[in-house]
Amino acid sequence: MLIKKKRSWEIAEREATPEGVYMNRRQIMAGAGAIGLAGALGTVRGAFAAPGDERLAMNAVRNEAFQLDRELTPEDVNLNYNNFYEFGSHKEIAKDAQVLEARPWQVTIDGLVDNPTTIDIDDLISKMGIEERLYRHRCVEAWSMTVPWIGFPFAKLVEMAGPQAGAKYIRMETFNDPSVARGIKTQPWYPWPYIEGLTVEEAQNDLAFLVVGAYGKQVADQMGAPLRLALPWKYGFKSIKSIVKFTFTNERPISFWEQLQAREYAFWANVNPKVPHPRWTQATERVLHTGERVPTLLFNGYEEQVASLYADKQDLGDLLYR
Ligand code: MTE
Fold first, then answer.
1. What is the pLDDT of residue 50?
2. How far, in Å, is the centroid of ligand 1 from the Cα of 239?
3. Residue 261, number of CB atoms within 10 A of its CB
């Protein structure tokens, strides 16, 4: 008999906050600065999914060290403007992506590690614990958004894996099932599966965040359920979705986009307003929900946290930023 185990982050329906209250309550809490008021509003930090939406609310406490200087992108904007080429090379893939079965889901960690494993996503979440962080996201296509992600530091997964001395890079891979993702079937010219990579040192940076939720719920299919990456100082294509494998390696991984067009999409892909994409400027970005154009910042505003990672790589010049 199947006994349903309550997951550590689940909250009872009656405790969850109705969707419409989510933003308001958070705005109140952000501005309140009064423990009394926060206490009166309760400690539950989840939002309840809309009717027909099967995602569970997630009970994650916000890590106040990761704040924003701009307002959050409304959830419905994020849910309806996505890059997920496995489901099509346009932004309206949300409906098609609902066929993605995010549970059960196995994640493999292999390569140059002391503790290779294949682990169920919910066991991984229980092991890692979760928190909420507010992050910017800057797409290479020059639009931007802000998201309340829920997840855990990539550094924790690296620690669990136990990288061996030779492990310099982590290669990540998205699921590759054409019977689920119609874009894989209809666009055979792309080098599936979607691959991304970063250095072990980058993965250990405080900002590198593995995402399992957003807006108080499990992350939506179209946003990369059940496990995606958030690397806010790099262009969005580095933030790989629906990850099935992490391979620790001594070879620099060649990403999906680099295989397609290395001149436009290099390995490092750090946000820099001074290095234009070969076909457009990166000096400004369009804020997704307002349409406003604002200046783009070096490392997307996260220079203080990440510049030291690249102090000895200045000889790479433009390659650090494409
Ligand atoms: N991951 C996979 N597997 N497939 C993709 O097409 N697109 C990338 C990234 N991760 C992509 C992916 C790009 S270009 C961006 S900007 C972000 O996902 C978009 O994330 P969002 O749809 O949640 O805004």
1. 54
2. 6
3. 10
